[in-house]
Amino acid sequence: MKQKNPNFIGCINHKSVSARAMCVRCGAPLCGECVTRDGSGLVVCAVCPDEKAAGFETPTADPVRAPEKPGFKAARQSKDGTADDSEGTFIPWEDTRIRKGLVSFGLTVYFSFRSPTRYLKGINYERRDITTPLIFALIAGCLGQLAMWSQLIADPELLRKAMMATPQGQVQAQDIDPHAFLLQLLPIIPIAVSAFLFVKAWIGHSMIRLLGGDSRPFSATFRVFAYTEAMAILMWVPHIGTSAYRFMTIFMLLTGIRAAHRVSLTTSMLALMPIILMPVLFSMPTGA
């Protein structure tokens, strides 16, 4: 993109408006409309918590410009005032200046772990596109499922025990080859990940509407669930990966629903309750 003014840096929220100050905590450039102050009178952005930050001086002059090389910092803040407002403010996967691929995927996952709250609050929930977040969720979700598949292939007895836990599986588990069974199911992973993602997003969105959330469309809720799939990478962590994935997923969904629909923590918890209880319901015995 051609830069008309190399010295121009736009507000992190309103890219076409020149920044007048900078957040003392995260360094985000802010225009006059976005400037807020904490209890000490220092400039902070809306994302940073309202805590006292002694030892900082409020910058009122031109903010320091971030390095122009493509990467994590380039994805966090705009380099000119003519950028498209539809691009994700904090999502490298949606940044038009970063080429889609391994780099943008890795930066997005890195940012989701580095600052989960800022990551979710920085999603552009006004954008109606669901294809871009769906592709990201498919990649992350499939990588997480492959971690589970690799554990089952390494120890086939885990699969046999899981099948023996159900009455229907007791007969099947005696004659089936676990390796062949898992390899047959491998092509179904992308379909299962995308289908389950849409089901969870639909349930969450329906609950939000029932509980009086704002009028944002389904795409806003879907983007929360899709970009939360970055946590699926945790399933590659030995021993604690699955538990860490579940904990972080619930935390990020609560944060994302609050940011997307402007609801309280209680409302977001009630909206997500069916999804939180879903694994428990599926694990209940189906017969005597």
If you average the pLDDT, what whole number results? 75
- Element-level helix/strand string: EEEEHHHHHHHHHHH
Report on the biggest sheet. Answer: 2 strands, antiparallel
For the record, give the distance between the C-alpha atoms at the N and C termini, rounded to a whole number.
Answer: 65 Å
Instruction: Please list the strands of the largest sheet in the order they lie side by side.
Output: 1-2
Q: What share of residues are in beta strands?
A: under 5%
Shape: globular
Total number of helices:
11
**Cα-based radius of gyration, to the nearest Å:** 22 Å
The strand count comes to 4
Structural class: mainly alpha
Q: Low-confidence parts, pLDDT < 50 over ≥5 residues?
A: 50-88, 283-288
Task: Classify the helix fraction into a percent range.
Answer: 40-55%
Describe the protein.
It is a single chain. This protein is mostly helical and 288 residues long. It has a domain of 152 residues. The chain is 51% helix and 3% strand. It has a two-stranded antiparallel ribbon with strand order 1-2. Strands 3-4 form a two-stranded antiparallel ribbon. A hairpin with a 6-residue loop joins strand 1 and strand 2. Helix 5 packs antiparallel against helix 6 and helix 8 crosses helix 9. The termini are far apart. The C terminus is likely disordered.
